[in-house]
Write a structure and sequence with these properties.
By secondary structure, the protein is α+β, with helices and mostly antiparallel strands. The protein contains four helices and six strands; from the N terminus they run ααβββαββαβ.
Length: 156
C-alpha cells in the first residue's frame, strides 16, 4: 500500500471514529423534497453553503477534512466534511470509511458524513447522493432501523 493510500485509509478511519464520537446512530424520516444540483467547490465554499465554519482536521494535497456543526435549518447537527484532489482518492476513502457504518452524502470530490437526519438535511442544500455504511457496524442504526439485522441495499 502506498503512502498516499495509507494516509487516505488512516484519514477515513479517523473521520469515521471522530464522527462516531461526536454523534450516535440516529434515525429520521426520509425526506421527499427535490434534491438540488450537487454543490461543487472548495471545502470552505461547500461548508459556507450550509452555514458551517469548518474546524480543519486534515489539510493535505490529497484530502482536506473538517468537522462542522450547524444549529440552523433542516440539518441541526455535527458532521465531517471532506474534499478530495481526485475521484480515485474519494472512492478509496469511501471504501474504507463505509466499513465503520454511518450515513454519507456524496458529491463530486466531496463527502459529508453524519447522522441520517443531518445528511438528509444537508442533501436539501448541497444535493448529492445519500449512501449508507456497513450494517455490521451500526447495530440498531444504519440498515437496521427496526433493531433487527437485515441485508437491505444502499440507497442512491
Amino acid at each position: 500500500m502506498s503512502v498516499t493510500r495509507k494516509r487516505l485509509a488512516g484519514s477515513a478511519i479517523g473521520a469515521a471514529l471522530a464522527l462516531l464520537a461526536l454523534t450516535g446512530c440516529g434515525s429520521g424520516d426520509d425526506e421527499g423534497a427535490a434534491v438540488p444540483k450537487t454543490a461543487t467547490g472548495t471545502l470552505e465554499h461547500i461548508a459556507g453553503e450550509v452555514g458551517c465554519k469548518p474546524d480543519m482536521q486534515t489539510d493535505a494535497d490529497t484530502i482536506r477534512q473538517a468537522l462542522c456543526t450547524n444549529k440552523d435549518g433542516d440539518f441541526d447537527g455535527k458532521f465531517v466534511l471532506a474534499t478530495f484532489a481526485t475521484d480515485r482518492g474519494q472512492a478509496e476513502w469511501l471504501a474504507g470509511a463505509k466499513d465503520y457504518g454511518g450515513y454519507y452524502l456524496v458529491g463530486r470530490k466531496w463527502v459529508a458524513v453524519g447522522e441520517k437526519k443531518t445528511v438528509a438535511g444537508l442533501q436539501g442544500t448541497l444535493g448529492g447522493d445519500v449512501q449508507e455504511g456497513s450494517e455490521h457496524m451500526n447495530p440498531g442504526g444504519s440498515h437496521n432501523d427496526s433493531g433487527s439485522h437485515s441485508g437491505g441495499g444502499h440507497s442512491g
